[in-house]
Amino acid sequence: MSPTSRVRRLRLGLPRRVFSQVLVMQLAIAAGVAVLATGLFLAPLSDQLDDQAMRRALAIAQTTAAHPKIAEDLTSSRPTGDGPVQAEAERIRRASGAEYVVIMNKEGIRWSHTDRTQIGRPVSTDPSDALAGREVMEIDDGTLGRSARGKVPLRDSGGHIVGAVSVGIEYESVRARLIHSIPGLLAYAGGALAVGAIAAYLISRRVQRQTRDLAFSDISALLAEREAMLHGIREGVVALDSGGRIRLLNDEAQRLLGLGTEVVGRPLDEALGAGRTTDVLAGRVSGTDLLTVRGQRVLIANRMPTDDGGAVATLRDRTELEQLGRELDSTRGLIDALRAQDHEHANRMHTLLGLLELEMYEEAAEFVGEVAGAHRVTAEQITEKIRDPLLAALLVGKATVAAERGVALSVPRETALPDRLVDPGGLVTIVGNLVDNALDAAAGTRHARVEVAVRTEGRAVVLRVRDTGPGVPAEQRETIFTEGWTTKEPPAHGKRGIGLALVRRLAERQGGSARAGEAPEGGAEFTVVLPEALTEPAFSPTEGSTLIKGTEATP
């Protein structure tokens, strides 16, 4: 906050805390409502009191006109201050509390009046409506000042109009009633204001506890910092409400899960679909640092419940770390293979040296040819049947590793794969994971062997990997494809249990399938079907000759 704004805030005396601001605002609102309600009540009250005074004057006039003796005295006497009409009118005035009761004849000459000097004179207001037979209510000015009046015709016993009766209620008494009602009204308004003040105080105290007595500017700054932090951190954050709906998804979570902002407000199962990732985020799988796969990403998820029944889940991308770990495992395997190869090479050199020292030159040449030819034959057999360079190179390398581990890796005669793969990298990942698992299972068994067969059916590729290991029990042939499931010890760099999950995920992404079964000679057999794994063949002479050559070279 700048010094100028701070000085301005102090000069105006505005409170900074939320509690004080909310209390002041609510008190101002309550006071404004009380004043408005009082004004709205007083505005029609004056008119209501005027109407009541005029109706009262009219009622007195009607009661007076209904007295038969007054009409008779009017027609039989003269307008004098001590006449019978004056006497009766004064009696009614005193009894009713009216300001005046004036009785006049048809010419508008007064027969009665509060001021006796006015008797015998014409009335000061127009009596024509009353003399015409109509009743009148009005607020008007007369000889006695402003008053609420009621005028009615005066009829004799035969029903003929012989005059009129005019009754006035002093207007000052109406105003006095209005002023008299204001204190009571203000008392009610003050009571309502007091109740509103107490309610405002209680609400403000509750707001104070919930906001921890922060200022509005502090809350606004915290919200801005929260948004910047959530969308700036390199860790996915997913917030769920008590109903399992997504209520927050930061930028990193959108990237890791492959979702957009349109899923906010939707149920988690609907947004992500069925799978382990949904189960982990929904809390159906318990634990910390849970491993899951989303697309080609390996994610580590943690879930923390909140007080309102929801939860906040964090996601970390472990894809690169897992890839580094796999490369480390491969490097360690190659190092072990190189060490074994070094010992084997030393043994072969010692054998060759012995043959040369014994001057067995022909046997030495034959021994060298056998050693060099064995590796060359294996590489040639694989490259003739597998025309994709990435997959062929993978299998050649796996054959070397298998040989060092005492496992025979073979490619059957029916194997044939042209160089027309849509996703070579995906198939390399599938084959690499399946062969690694097969080597681990077959190593140390009698007549250890791994067989990799690849064949095509139109644009589909069918991959089969068999081993001579212990096999997979029937009840676990679906469980093994679940992320995190493994029978091996976890490596130093992280967790296991994602290889077969990736295999199935990659196969399903291409519309295919991956399943486990039992090999004919025992052990495990994994079959992967990729329906659209090959592109359409280009019928060029060069490619056609290559395919024919590959077919002829297949033994």
Structural account:
With 555 residues, the chain is α+β, with helices and mostly antiparallel strands. The chain folds into three domains: 15-214, 2-Layer Sandwich (Beta-Lactamase); 233-317, Beta-Lactamase; 321-553, 2-Layer Sandwich (Heat Shock Protein 90). It is built from 16 helices and 14 strands. It has helices at residues 3-12, 18-65, 68-76, 84-96, 128-131, 171-211, 216-232, 251-257, 268-272, 276-282, 319-357, 361-385, 389-404, 424-442, 499-509, 541-553, and strands at 100-105, 136-142, 145-155, 161-170, 236-240, 246-249, 290-294, 297-305, 311-317, 408-410, 449-457, 460-467, 513-518, 524-530. The protein has a five-stranded antiparallel beta sheet, sandwiched between helices. A five-stranded mixed beta sheet has the order 10-11-12-14-13. A four-stranded antiparallel beta sheet has the order 1-4-3-2. Helix 11 (319-357) runs antiparallel to helix 12 and helix 14 (424-442) runs antiparallel to helix 15 (499-509). It starts with a helix and ends with a helix. Its EC number is 2.7.13.3. One of its GO terms (molecular function) is ATP binding.
